[in-house]
Write the structure tokens for this entry.
Amino acid sequence: MKLLEVNGLSKNFGGVAALSNVTAHSLAGETLGMIGPNGSGKTTFVNIVSGHVRGDSGTVTFGGTNIARMTPHQLAAVGLCRTYQAVRVFSALSTQRNIDSARLLLDGRGLDTAELRELVEWLRLDRSLNKEAGSLTLFEQRRLELLMRLVLKPRLIMLDEPVGGLAVTEVNEMIKLLLELKSRCSMFVIEHTMRVIRELADRVIVLIAGEKVVDGPPCEILKNQRVIDEYLGTTHA
């Protein structure tokens, strides 16, 4: 069953095409990856789907509902949310207050107390609840941002470079967490670290210069000659 469906999506900025007639879909229970060079339109795609930017043309549906004009707040209520390349938490507030602020979006319709406690422990933030979010390590902040989305009980969470800035050992831990997250909700992942894509994604879309050039399983995509020539290079072949 198609959860997210995008047809003919285009977006121009100052006459420059960021996306050109992109068609894509995500299945319920699937982890969909998206890769491509910097400037290929990946973040623009996520920004449009997540309600931060309006597309110039095309349709976007989620669970069969047209979401093209919904705000991020409205999308959270129907089960779609996203994280960011640069982690976004309320630095001056405690970890607990950050979590509480996220729960307000759904007016108490998210996780119950027991579910929240389990999630906090799973993400190993139970000893950081009273600390200011700005004092946490980047990896802790990334886990907190993830928690702030998961309290909303998303059907699909869009992750924009979830291991960006992390040390090798932290990347290993984040991959483990995201593999476990696959059983909780569907995911859409943008990432330059190909190990994340290989281990996490069920299917991968490649964007180059705003156009979708190929779509398929990671094992096939990472051997595609055009993808190697224009993005991965021979070291990834």
Q: What stands out?
A: The first helix runs from residue 42 to 49. The CA atoms of residues 91 and 134 lie 4 Å apart.
